[in-house]
Amino acid sequence: MNDVVDQAGAPTAQQSAQDMINTYWTHRAHAYHENQTASERAPYDIALWTREFGRHLPTAPQRVIDVGCGPGFVSHICASLGHDVTGIDASPGMLAEARAEADQHAAEGRPCPSFMRGNAMSVSLGDAVADVVTSRYLLWTLLDPVQALREWLRILRPGGLLICADGNHFPEGIGAELTVDSEGGPDEFTRVYNPLLQRQLPLALEQSTDAYVRAFEEAGAVDIQIHPVDGVKEIDERCGLPAGHQHVQYYMITARKPG
Q1: By the number of CB atoms within 10 A of the CB, which of 11, 58, 185, 250 ranks highest?
Q2: Beta-strand (E) ranges in the chain?
């Protein structure tokens, strides 16, 4: 990952915050991946997001960069749909989970992505190398989502497509009662995403999609569209929600690089 430093060579406050975020998601990686692949709700979530990404992806094969891929949930979906996929994440723990699943898929003769470590706000790829850039549940936790979107547009070919799944995760703020299954303890999320960090995340507490649209516009994207995702509430009702969590309306946000 490309460190940001001040003139004296010390990490900036932004980098310190990013290190906290990366460490949290490494601690969270195994439980997060297990929930996505082996929980009661996993098959419903996989089917729902396969439908949603399949609906918006162009005809395969496309060169897809899945930014902030975590344990590879979307990367594996896109590969299963016939695309050439590279997942990028800043968390070593998340990448370990993603690569382990890729190894399993490869042993079974199934298509699988490749993975690399990287910073969503400074992608270590050349210009115009991708047909599609995807992300899921990433924009809300970025310290500079506009800079990230500019980078994603940079690596897209002219006319290339952004497909970002996100939502208004905490419209009423992050409650102290929210707990997670993490190596850092059930309160690690609220300790890391404390009020100070929340103020540094432009999209974390948004109550509508307006701020997302503004970020895409400021980054230079065109043909920006918001597509509500149906079916999540039914899965939540069938499988239940973890302590302190609430139902969230998710959206697929699509946009293009000017051609």
Answers
A1: 250
A2: 63-67, 84-89, 114-117, 130-136, 156-167, 222-228, 250-256
